[in-house]
Amino acid sequence: MKEAFLVVQGGFAGRDGLRNKRSRRAALAALLMTAGPVALTAAAPAQAQDAARSFDIPAQPLANALTAFGQQSGLQVSAQAPLLEGRTSQAVKGSLSSMQALSQMLVGTGLTFRMVGTTVSLEAAPQAAGGTVLLGPVRVEESGGSQSAANTAATDPQRPTGPGEGYVATRSLTATKTDTPIARTPQAISVVTSAQIAAQAAQSVPQALRYTSGVQAEQRGVNTDGEEYVFGRGFRLEEYLDGLILPDVSYNIASYEPYNLERVEVLHGPASVLFGQAYPGGIVNLVSKRPTADPLHEVQLSAGSWNRFQGAVDLGGPLDAGGDVLYRLTGVARHSDSQIDHVETERYSLAPAVTVRIDKDTDLTVLGNVQYDPKAGYYNFVPSQGTVTANPNGKVSTSLDIGDPSFDRHSRTQWGLGYMLEHRIGETWTLRQNLRYTHIRDSLDNVFTYGFQPDLRTLNRYTFTNHESLGQIAVDNQVQAKFSTGALEHTLLVGLDYRRIDYEERYGSDFAGQPTLDAFAPVYGQSFTMPAYSGDEDVGQDQLGLYAQDQIRVGKLDILAGLRQDWAGSTDHERISGQVTKQNDSKLTGRVGAVYSFAGGLSPYVSYATSFQPTVGTGYDGSAFRPTTGEQYEAGLKYQPTGLNAFATVSVFHLTQQNVTTPDPDPTHTGFSVQTGEIRSRGVEFELHAHPVPQLGLIATYTYLDNKVTKSNDTENAFGNNLGKRPFGVPRQQASGWADYTFDGGHISGLTLGAGVRYVGSTYGDSLNTFKVKASTLVDALASIDLSGMGEALEGWKLSVNASNLLDKRYVAYCQSASLCAFGLRRTVLGSLAYRW
Description:
By secondary structure, this protein is mainly β.
């Protein structure tokens, strides 16, 4: 069964979000009466190695006790997070072996454990007739670089650590596809956990990434509602769902509901070695909520600013008596006005999932999602005059609708269905196949602006229409082997993946005779002309990739090396002109890195990685453009301090994107491009997630980014890459900090108060760097209370209030020219009432 796991490694555990409930006390009492000590039947060599040591762990919630056990034993502990909920440990004190201490700690919990080398895996103890708990023998197995089937489940690479980890994640699947500790991965990784998503009430994936280093999550401001563009290290970040790419073609950009997610992971820098064609800044991997072994039931009602109303449900648990068939069903329905006059958003989302344990070595998880956004959100621009720079007529309102409600329409329908199949062969081999089909249909009719007339109050406007649909199939086949060669421990991964996209797009625009708009006294309901289609394309794209990766551990040194060969092709049939354009590319990419784990939790690392992204088009001579390529050198330090639930990363990187298109310098080749451009991105990133005590959560980030066009044939292109200039919309500095505290005693027990600050530095507003968009500092806040302490009738109820941009700062998120800017989101308050049983 594929479950979320709480991992304690070298003394680290997730934040204790698991509270004892009155309704569970009777069950715990029964377990205490029926459960006896765990019997140990370890092999003699393992017993000999498990020397006695001093333990002093008081009785407390089991998650906290495991933290202390990890600190005092030095062992790595894996446990399904749902197994820990509501369980309390026994006190352990004295000179004991690690197995004796853990056995004593688990008395009465209904749990047992197995050991593989220095890894401990917790699992539910079997039950005899009548419900009596049978605490069977603990199995101790030699590690030798191999992994038992049971322990494979405990470190399920399909499902990294989940609920119960608080804000601190210690493992990630995205960077290696093998569920590797982040401290042993030589590349910067950020993880937004489910606890952080919930605490900050993220209403979109970009909002979930607000407190992530190196990521410019909401560069497009209010436009992010309509199109979820996310940027990292100065470049676009493509989104993946459970390791398979989500569509990102024209306006067919997936917009996934964050309530359906377990976590969001960011791999900083080139990722082509495992994922194929991608932008050089990195990728964002969304991890779906999965079926749970323990029953889970939650309903939530929310209301807030802009007349927002939302309902959500999250259900899960076993479907059979043996727990071999599990389910999860999450869903959201909401309707809201928005900051922009006349613009509404509406969403209906449902995500079912079923996990089947076919046998002890084979698991199948089927994941589906259906999402309908009949009102998909705002996407438009305002001019810089009156927003960034002065306008003699005053300031443009942050609620101004540039378009017209009689014409504007934006809707999106998306659905996906796939599976994750895993089969283990002995202790060495694991076979996986992950597959998903995704379909998106996006329809946009909009009135856009292209700047002020000379009076600086009358806006020129045009109409635009875009209707498209897309189908994508993606499959990733993996073979993993864990073995040893002498002193070297290997995790070898070989994969073959394929994806195919077929999409149709019809679009057109009309600039002639469309009504203007007085930005300071707007009148709506005017008559507009629907443009004729100027483009009607039928496009097919595919990619086949063969990759291999070896993770080698010798002592405290981890070495990572990988290579990948990709073959990509596309066919574009333009129906109106009848023109057919074909293009084929192939590229070898790679990555190599090393990290050394010192005592005390310090892990310095270095790495080198490359990426590629096909470029559509041809030069003057008719030859197809080569793919753009990315190359990154990175060094850093990861810190997972012993005895403290915290994780910090500081990284220094130098990233370049080559083969960027720039205008052809030959005056007889007007309108054509060459590939002589280069963009350099270098900087420093720092990120800290910590729970110094279980009640206190901390997040801190800082990013310094030096982006510049280092090679180009152009110096004065209003929308190009100009030599020596910084790309528009990319800040040099960003910083953020978040802290919250949960009171666990007295009359305010269960009360959580939190606040955060986000700083985004100034950016250039166009490609020529002629003006700047000012920096912005925003404040967020949280107040919530677990109502269970107020009486039996309120058991399971929780009330929360979140405020984003609490001080209601007016700011511009970015500009890409004098006529194309976007406001940031004003103050938004959301209240939620949740019931969980």
